[in-house]
Amino acid sequence: MTSAIGISPSVSLLQGEAVVRGACPHDCPDTCALLTTVRDGIAIKVSGNPDHQPTDGVLCNKVSKYTERTYSPDRLLQPLRRAGPKGSGRYEPVSWDDALEDIAARLAAIAARDPEAIVPYSYAGTMGLVQGESIAARFFNRLGASMLDRTICSSAGGEGLAQTLGGKVGMKVEFFAEAKLILIWGSNSIASNLHFWRLAQAAKRNGAKLVCIDPRRSETAEKCHEHVQLRPGTDAALALAMMHELVVNDWLDHDYIARHTTGWEGLRERALRWTPERAAAVCGIDAAQIRSLARDWGTTRPAAIRVNYGMQRVRGGGNAVRAVACLPALTGAWRDRAGGVLLSSSGTFPVDRAALQRPDLLAGRAPRTINMITIGDDVLRDASPEFGPRIEALVVYNSNPVAVAPESSKVVAGFAREDLFTVVLEHFRTDTADYADYILPATTQLEHWDVHLAYGHTDVLLNRPAIAPVGQARSNTQVFRDLARHMGFTDECFSETDESLCRKAYGTRIDFDELLARGFASLPVADAPFANGGFPTASGKCEFFSEALARQGMDGLPDHVPNYELAGSSPRFPLAMISPPARNFLNSTFVNVQSLRDIEGEPVLEIHAQDAMARGITTGMEVRVFNDRGEYRCKAEVSPRARPGVVNGLGIWWRKFGLNGTNVNELTSQKLTDMGRGPVFYDCLVEVQAA
Ligand SMILES: Nc1nc2c(c(=O)[nH]1)N[C@H]1C(S)=C(S)[C@@H](COP(=O)(O)OP(=O)(O)OC[C@H]3O[C@@H](n4cnc5c(=O)[nH]c(N)nc54)[C@H](O)[C@@H]3O)O[C@H]1N2
Ligand SMILES: Nc1nc2c(c(=O)[nH]1)N[C@H]1C(S)=C(S)[C@@H](COP(=O)(O)OP(=O)(O)OC[C@H]3O[C@@H](n4cnc5c(=O)[nH]c(N)nc54)[C@H](O)[C@@H]3O)O[C@H]1N2
Ligand code: SF4
Ligand SMILES: [Mo]
């Protein structure tokens, strides 16, 4: 018997096979609709739902292996308590009740002194709205714990977009297939946005030109018609020089500019200062290539830009996104449904976060905010009037900060503090779990309810549990409900079920019955949302000039902001390092899945032949990559994927699988971007030597 009704089968009742509808939880723009085949209570296959258009029946290599991850022999199956020094990896099993009681007692004792000494640390291990910040947020709000600024990925670009277009909004992804020109800007789509790449391929078959703008000759760059291989952190200079060409050749839509933009005179003046020659010197490319790119952009319709987050992980990341986001308004590209720009669609989703997170539980308190990027410094910081109390407890869920946060040596030193109380909710013994006082086994997406938004399309997805929790695993929501009970929090909101939370996320703005029946529901979004302006900014226009930025004392117009660690500025560390994702990992998730790690092999550093030769480095050689923050060892790959002067350290390996127990984040810095308080992972100078 096979059914696709999507009803979550209860293990005892299940006879034969069922197919359960779900959603991929990972931090990926594609948010695929999953179909899990369950036989006798065991998930035997996970595939893409062919009825869901953005998924189109296809999953990436990582998630098509989901059962391997779910049933991995390394999966955490019971609560563990530390039984040796921090970081020693020695743990003993403990019952849920004992663990919860002790954790609650320890947190209560700290909270009695100062609840802000407790810090939640979470990100997008699951992007689910329920297993992310629902009961967890209620718990920390009720406690009065420190707030966490969840900035580690997209906040610089998000802020750049908000100050230009008004939010994380853009063109509808499906119409990229109809474009005649697509700029893939700061995105290795084949690796990190596969379902967009399929649309770009369709456009290519229809005669579209594809251009990739990326310092790395990525898998995507090599399949585009043209590759603009600029230096990291120079995208705003390139965009401004394109504007220069649009102005001097009058490839402008004057009517669109007059009606639907602000600050044109100022932007025009600034662009005129960015000749292609000036930008070429900054970007490290030919002026002729900039001219031809501008000509393509100025003279092709429909023309579309897929920006992704690569360009905003540098000091000037917010400005870079602003500059690029101005380009469609200049040429009126928004008039076509296959024209405009897309960075993230997540701002389109009408999520009722207050209903999920209950900020009212703060009851008038305004706890301090810790930026997740500077956790390395902050966990080592003493109490002070500016900082507040020393961090005494960390509760980590949906994240692996010891591997993913910058300047790991400090993160590790902080997490190793014997006087820090750390609880980690996880599927596996990650680098972070190794420093926990308690490790609590979490359910995976196949085992719990959730509801999703997406940042690469505009459909809401529902995830139903397909199997019972593996071992003694509990969902994040259940753990925070349990902890609330042990802390004596009697508020009714701590007994709300996951299914009720799923309904609450969108309230009446989504037909929940449709979600239950199909597994997904599309938001009503206009085909060409900004054809007649109507941007969600204060002015309703595309803001070339942002009053809001000017009021904060910042430049109201986009500009090129050079990297903190500018290539060529340091004789000791002459190479710029970027650390984009490896194709078969998702951030640090999947690194422990053997079949995927086998494909990635070992941690590598791609280096251009010229830079390799100057250092006597050949492919396969173990190298030391270092700067004043630390040292990372990996294997060199002399490769045309690297441009001269730039090395690519693909991420994000677990430290424990690294050659010397570190990963690329040993080298990255905790500095913040121009806007959005974001990370500067790709603004990092290093030197490389044979080990
Ligand atoms: N397979 C896989 N998929 C993923 C992820 C993963 O780890 N693995 N991560 C997920 C997450 S969390 C996110 S945020 C998204 C990220 O999605 P994207 O932003 O598309 O991420 P990347 O594939 O890292 O693309 C970044 C590209 O930007 C390039 N780049 C680096 N610096 C610059 C620069 O200064 N300018 C320009 N123009 N390009 C630059 C890099 O070389 C890389 O090819 O992907 C998601 N999808
Ligand atoms: N050098 C460098 N560093 C980077 C980046 C880079 O490009 N270069 N990229 C940055 C970016 S874009 C991002 S988004 C961050 C990502 O940083 P994180 O959000 O920390 O992402 P992951 O490394 O994937 O870790 C997520 C963890 O959550 C766990 N998890 C998944 N689902 C659940 C669940 O339901 N419950 C619980 N309790 N746990 C769960 C997974 O097992 C996994 O260990 O890394 C950043 N770090
Ligand atoms: S990681 Fe991305 S491409 Fe892979 S299944 Fe999930 S949403 Fe789809
Ligand atoms: Mo991210």
UniProtKB/TrEMBL annotation:
Highest taxon above the source species: Bacteria
Signal peptide start-end? none
Task: Tell me its family.
Answer: Belongs to the prokaryotic molybdopterin-containing oxidoreductase family.
Q: What Pfam families does the annotation carry?
A: Molybdop_Fe4S4, Molybdopterin, Molydop_binding
One MF annotation (Gene Ontology) recorded for this entry: oxidoreductase activity
Q: Which cofactor does it need?
A: Mo-bis(molybdopterin guanine dinucleotide)
The organism encoding this protein is Caenimonas aquaedulcis
Q: What is this protein called?
A: Molybdopterin oxidoreductase family protein
Keyword Iron annotated: yes
Q: Could you tell me the keywords of this UniProt record?
A: Iron, Iron-sulfur, Metal-binding, Molybdenum, Oxidoreductase
Q: Where is the 4Fe-4S Mo/W bis-MGD-type domain?
A: 17-74
